[in-house]
């Protein structure tokens, strides 16, 4: 395979009109090899899966040429794009049939209450938990709460975003705002980061 | 909806790592290739890129993808 420079890649894949077929074939091979290495050892990533993701990756790369910043090798960027395509698909396949509403509703145990009052570390823990609960219940919007809880229960962001009708970036902003509200809530209650760290053994 | 103690602990961990100026998953993807190349080649990482890579601390999915990307690029570099 010839070593193409970034400029040559960009030119031959979309510079002037239709993509050069030789370049597309080379891109396909780069992605296939990259994905094999990236997904090595994953049972769900068999040859068929790699092939499908290679095809999708090629389309995504051709579609997104303008988003390439040019601060890495073109092939590194293309593999990055394909890896995201593949992981998004792997995660979605596992979670496709899970409803976000059900996942968020299905509450496990309630907040544990009765703990020995003479244990100060337990007191601190209870206080922090109570503040967090307070913010979750009253300081977050329904959508923030939904997204945050779904994320904590392991639902992939692509799936949460799809079910909530959001882009991944918009979902990230939603949960980031929620985390910031929690952080501010703890600060307002006079609880320091160190206290949280010690209490939860983080 | 109520959270289990384990979920609250995990949430506390994320809250501690939360910064006002974080970037999102789509934005991170723009930094990932050059960061991965530098890490794969054991080159020093400039500050802005290191800052962007803090996203990996708060985003398990991007972190998982990054490890996979690194595996692909590291072998590539080794031939
Ligand atoms: Zn992310």
What does this protein look like?
The complex is a heterodimer of chains A (202) and B (79). Chain A is mainly α. Chain A is 70% helix and 0% strand. The longest helix of chain A has 22 residues, at 74-95. Chain B has one domain. By secondary structure, chain B is mainly alpha-helical. The mean pLDDT of chain B is 90. Chain B contains 5 helices and no strands. The chains are: A mainly alpha (202), B mainly alpha (79). Chains A and B meet through helix 2, helix 4, helix 6, helix 7 and helix 9 of A and helix 1, helix 2 and helix 5 of B. The structure holds zinc ion (ZN). Zinc ion (ZN) is lined by residues 25, 28, 55, 59, 61-62 of chain B. The site of zinc ion has 6 residues of chain B, from helix 2 and helix 5.
What is the topology?
The complex is a heterodimer of chains A (202) and B (79).
Chain A: H1 6-15, H2 21-38, H3 47-63, H4 74-95, H5 100-105, H6 120-139, H7 142-152, H8 157-164, H9 168-188, H10 193-200
Chain B: H1 5-17, H2 25-40, H3 47-52, H4 55-58, H5 60-78
Helix pairs in contact in B: 2-5
Bound molecules: zinc ion.
Residues 25, 28, 55, 59, 61-62 of chain B line the site of zinc ion.
């Amino acid at each position: 395979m010839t070593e193409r420079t970034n400029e040559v890649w960009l030119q031959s894949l979309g510079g002037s009109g239709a993509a050069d077929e030789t370049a597309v074939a080379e891109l396909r091979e780069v992605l296939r090899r990259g994905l094999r290495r990236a997904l090595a050892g994953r049972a769900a990533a068999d040859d068929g899966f790699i092939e499908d993701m290679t095809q999708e990756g090629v389309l995504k790369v051709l579609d997104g040429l303008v988003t390439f910043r040019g601060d890495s090798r073109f092939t590194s960027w293309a593999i990055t794009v394909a890896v995201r395509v593949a992981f998004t698909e792997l995660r979605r396949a596992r979670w496709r049939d899970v409803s976000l509403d059900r996942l968020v509703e299905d509450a496990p145990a309630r907040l544990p209450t009765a703990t020995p009052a003479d244990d100060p570390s337990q007191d601190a823990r209870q206080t922090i938990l109570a503040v967090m609960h307070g913010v979750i219940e009253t300081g977050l919007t329904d959508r923030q709460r939904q997204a945050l809880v779904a994320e904590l229960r392991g639902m992939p962001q692509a799936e949460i975003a799809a079910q909530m009708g959001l882009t991944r970036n918009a979902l990230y902003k939603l949960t980031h705002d929620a985390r910031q509200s929690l952080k501010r809530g703890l600060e307002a209650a006079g609880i320091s980061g160190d206290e949280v760290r010690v209490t939860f053994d983080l | 909806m109520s959270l289990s103690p384990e979920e609250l602990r995990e949430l506390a961990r994320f809250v501690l790592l939360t910064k006002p100026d974080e970037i999102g998953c789509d934005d991170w993807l723009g930094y990932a290739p050059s960061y991965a190349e530098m890490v794969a080649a054991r080159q020093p990482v400039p500050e802005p890129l290191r800052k962007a890579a803090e996203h990996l601390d708060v985003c398990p999915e991007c972190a998982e993808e990054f490890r996979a990307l690194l595996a692909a690029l590291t072998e590539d570099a080794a031939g």
